[in-house]
Design a protein that fits this description.
Layout lengths: L8 H9 E9 L12 E8 L10 H13 L5 H4 L7 H10 L17
Length: 112
């Protein structure tokens, strides 16, 4: 879920293409050697592709990737590689309905 430490690039990207639901948890103790975390089995149901994306899918994937590479930075800072003029970047983020001071883990899948 957005806002949680478990929300990641994989979660954001998979929610674009699928509806995911938790089937069951797998305790760490069933693995040899046991990992430090439990696992989970998910069901991923493909979503029908939209007739057209509002932006090219490659751009979407690049933006999400850049934002999550530096997940503790604000969008303004993590996306500066795309648009190096801060005022232009802020304007683009506002146009997309995003607050430049948000962090990647706080952006919901529809906002991406």
């Amino acid at each position: 879920l957005p806002g949680s430490p478990d929300y990641s690039r994989l979660a954001a990207m998979s929610q674009l293409h699928t509806d995911a639901s938790l089937l069951f948890r797998i305790p760490a103790r069933v693995f040899v050697p046991p990992p430090d975390v439990d696992a989970a089995a998910l069901q991923l149901r493909p979503r029908p592709p939209p007739e057209r994306h509002p932006v090219p899918i490659e751009l979407y994937e690049n933006v999400v990737k850049l934002a999550f590479q530096t997940r503790r930075k604000t969008l303004r800072n993590s996306l500066a590689k795309l648009i190096d003029d801060p005022a232009t970047l802020d304007m683009a983020l506002h146009h997309a309905g995003l607050d430049p001071t948000l962090r990647a883990q706080d952006v919901t899948p529809p906002q991406w």
